Amino acid sequence: MTIKAVLAYRKRQDGTKAIRIYVYHNGQKSYVPTDLNILEKDWNDRRGEVKKTHPLSKAYNRKLNAIKHEIESGLLKGSSVRQLNKSTNENDFLAYMAQYIKREQSLSKGTLRLYESAHRHLSNYRLEVGKEMLSPYDFTPAFINGFRNYLYDLGCKDAGQRQILKKIKKVLRLGQTQGVHDANAWKEIKVPREPKSNKIYLTQAEMDTLYNMDLSHNPAVEKERDRFWLAYKFMMRYSDIASVNREMMVLTKGKRFLVYISVKTKIKATVPIGETAFKLLEKYDWKLDFTSNQQANRELKRIVSMAGINQIVEQDGKSAPKSQFVTFHTARRSGATNAYLSGLSLKIIADVGGWKKFTTLQVYLRASQLVSATQAADHDFFKE
User: Fold this and answer.
1) What does the buried/exposed string (b/e) look like for 311-333 if buried means 16 or more CB atoms within 10 Å of the residue's CB?
2) What is the pTM of this model?
3) Domain boundaries in the chain?
């Protein structure tokens, strides 16, 4: 019996290769997909594992070991190699989804909670409609519409439904890819379109005001402000800025870059480290996980208010001082918007900020049409 993690031969569009599990037993061989992708330079082919220098090596290797153990257990119980991607889960989607959640512990806590929520709602709806088991083939348009109505009755609006349906759709598609079932049910799930964001962003002038505040009398507040500013410059989520470490820095042609893989999306991003940003990272010894996301959100509202950014604005149908709508994620949204207004292309912003799709990035951009038109007026194209 041979069970080993290997890289696929072909590269993906982003330059990574898929990690697969090679299995040979009783004259049969197979490659089992893992849903993990990595650059070839980060792979130890001899040991069949992710190199320790990779920021997510422990999580990835734990997952690979769990899959290998699961495969070995199945073979020892009498399963054939051809049955590896087939199981009782072929007809029990909820069991397959539960197994997927159990194996995907490297995902962020927030993402795992979304998968668990989707599984719980789907399980409860199964009981509601009197089904003993939910098959991948049950996801007909009628079933999905009924499930959406069920969610609406629970008070789950489009935004919540969007997250739940996306998770269910992903697991259904993965099951088909892995050969667990051959149903095309996931294609029937129409996820509600995400409306254009009306979340606030902080302008460059407001970010300058925030950064130039003298907070030396209160080091804890100053530290929170500085981390927010770094997340703004790096266009990072909280989970990514809190995971920053010195090993992520790369020197190329005399310039510093931060190379990391997003905790949430597993997408690789490379962002320049400016001189001020580098000094701040050194100031805090590259340790930026000192408060939780929720604590930071509360503190940032107070800090931004102290900076005088309190004009009345509207967000999600509510009017309040702008400072009261600020969360840690405002840094990422503001960074993308101000970078765009400064003339950076969507391609560059997407690469630096780790956005996989331009359409997703465009939802983040908060410049009004008037602001965009004002910027365009100074362009040579519009001067004649």
Assistant:
1) eebeeeeeeeebbbbbbbbbbbb
2) 0.56
3) 2-188, 204-382
